[in-house]
Amino acid sequence: MYKISNFTDNDDVTIVSSLGGFQVIEYKRDLSVSPSSAITAYYSAEMNIRKRQLVCNLKEAQVTVQAGAMQWMLGNVNATTGIKGVGDFIGKAIRGKASGESVIKPEYVGDGILVLEPTYKYLILMDVADWGGSVILDDGLFLACDSRLKHKTVMRNNLSSAIAGSEGLFNLSLNGEGVFCIESDCPKEELIEITLENDVLKVDGNYVIAWSSSLEFTVERSGKSLIGSAASGEGLVNVYRGSGKLLMMPTAKMPNI
């Protein structure tokens, strides 16, 4: 039996979103500051640069998280590797090496509470059902998901997508039923949602952060010819073709500071 006080009920903490067994909390301001950092903390809060955390209620769903993301857990909570035999370990090792994701993503089971490390990035909750049961994530976005979701490695349709498109050759795909959380450089309110029906989206840069697995991703010249591409000044562009949904940032990813 346990009771939590002065956490989500703190008047400086807001629950900004809830979905499935997940809650995203946000600290309105950073009170743990020194006189030398107070000005920076004040203007950071004014510009929506705030600490956020993901709270997982294991009574609602068992969860899989990015390695090293756990901050604290309470009650009946047990961490497992999620490895189901030698063959499963080899498969996950290959997938982790290819996609750049951690080889082992811990799975937490039980009926307690799991809280992940704070971050200044935006935590966005989504349901895979809204993506037709399968979604592909850009590198480094995955934070946590319902453990019922299956993780797969998706390879680009051609090598040009990796070499010329400033992308990796592989991406993480989540499949099945359940909720997942990503860490985004851009708030949900600014993400552009595009739905294609047998159409094409061309993007000059790495702005798309998630897309339906039903879409074909390639890298192509912006024009029909080399001369046309040179004249447009764009060169090569990321191309998403077919029917499905995409989420796109309006600005480029921010450099790590």
Features of the shown structure:
single chain, 257 residues, mainly beta, Double-stranded beta-helix, seven-stranded antiparallel sheet, six-stranded antiparallel sheet, 4 helices, 18 strands, 13% helix, globular
Question: What's the short story on this structure?
Answer:
By secondary structure, this protein is mainly β. The chain is 13% helix and 42% strand.
Structure, explained:
- The chain is mainly β.
- Helix content is 13%, strand content 42%.
- Strands 10, 12, 13, 15, 16, 17 and 18 form a seven-stranded antiparallel sheet that branches. The chain has a six-stranded antiparallel sheet with strand order 6-7-4-11-14-9, with no helix packed on it. The chain has a five-stranded antiparallel sheet with strand order 1-2-3-8-5, with no helix packed on it.
- The longest helix has 14 residues, at 86-99.
- The chain is globular, with a radius of gyration of 20 Å.
- Mean pLDDT is 85; it is low at 85-90 and 226-233.
Give unreliable regions as ranges: 85-90, 226-233
Q: What is the H level of CATH, i.e. the homologous superfamily? A: Mitochondrial biogenesis AIM24
Proportion of beta-strand residues: 35-45%
Classify the helix fraction into a percent range: 10-25%
Q: Could you report the average pLDDT, rounded to the nearest whole number?
A: 85
Q: Would you identify the CATH architecture? A: 4-Layer Sandwich
Net shape:
globular
Strand tally is 18
Structural class: mainly beta
End-to-end distance = 41 Å
Radius of gyration equals: 20 Å
Biggest sheet, open or closed, and with what strands and sense?
A: 7 strands, antiparallel
CATH class: Alpha Beta
- Helix count, DSSP H or I runs of 4 or more residues: 4
